[in-house]
Amino acid sequence: MAELAAVYLITGTDRPKVTRALRRLRDRVGEDATELLSALEASAEDVEAACNALGLFAVERRLVVVEHVERWKAAEVKRLEEYLKRPAPTTVLALTGEEIKRDSTLAKAVAKAGKLLLYDVPKRGRKADLPRWVEAQLAERGVKIDTEAARAVVELVGENTDELATEVDKLATWAAGERLTERSGDAPRDVFLRVTGLLVAHVGRVRDCRDLSAQGVPPAAAAERMKRNRFYVQKLYEQAGNFTDHELDDAVVRLARLDAALKGGSTLPGELEFTRALVDITRGRDAAKTAS
Domain of 252? Predict the structure, then answer.
């Protein structure tokens, strides 16, 4: 196994690969020997202190993970550069963040002392290239998928690679090594499965907007964070206000059960499973309206 570097910069638009790379580092070092910091709160001086403190008391290698390093200003990056000239010998520093370019000052500093791990989804006609990304992700799990089927997955789920990765995991489990085609399996059940996927993704976004609203984040800022159209996010905010937290959370759980049922967890017809789920999800609100 290769020796660990003193510092890593792990970034890119392919968020699932970024997450997996960080997970591999944490697995190698061990959770008990890992400290997590955020550049939203911790300065480069804080990070340096954490690295040196761990190095003083540890005989084995330790890991300091710092998230959101794209938020650091030039002065923080300069302080980190000084630390990287003489990094703590028993500490691995892992820096993660979004939209950090290879030619940035931070990336150049890390490249001198450690390794850059940049994982980007191809940008040439990004949506057109995402089906190939889906194919590659499934191939890593031992599953082949037709190009048309991969394109259908992207159309249904959207361009968020985290959400796509979740669906890829579900599809890989469902396929059980078999090739996936656009019309594989029972056609009516597949239709309900796709609609369920859309509902799961939409309810998830509504819940995200509910949480952002509770934090005082306005719709325009939320749209920038979510990388989605601001008018669409405004609608999500409005929908979030029409449901209680309990109702949204229950809907997610019920849709997860429906998803499992449609993927082989039930012998009932797909239409019946789908109808029962919709009745369960809407019953609480209908009862509340009747009572009022």
Answer: 126-291
CB 25 within 8 A of CB 8: yes
Q: State the Cα–Cα distance between residues 154 and 160, nearest whole angstrom.
A: 9
| Per-residue CA distances from 289 to 160, 282, 283 (Å) | 35, 11, 10
d(CA 139, CA 25): 23
Total domains present in the chain: 2
Residues 142 and 233 in one domain: yes
Is residue 78 included in any domain, yes or no?
yes
Q: Bridge partners of 98? A: none
Residues 227 and 95 in one domain: no
Q: Distance between CA atoms of 76 and 106, rounded to whole angstroms?
A: 10
Q: Do 265 and 152 share a structural domain? A: yes
Domain's final residue, options 118, 147, 167? 118
* CATH classification at residue 254: 1.20.272.10
d(CA 20, CA 127): 22
Per-residue pLDDT, 259: 87
Mean model confidence pLDDT for the chain: 83
The total of other beta-carbon atoms located within 10 Å of residue 17's CB is 20
DSSP string, 71-103: G--HHHHHHHHHHHHS--TTEEEEEEESS--TT
Task: Please identify, among 118, 141, 164, the residue that sits at the C-terminal boundary of a domain.
Answer: 118
Q: Is 6 helix (H, G, I), strand (E, B) or coil?
A: coil
258 belongs to a structural domain = yes
> pLDDT tens digit string along 52-91?
885 545 557 889 999 999 999 999 999 999 999 999 988 9
Contacts of 99 (CB under 8 A, 6+ apart): 11, 13, 70
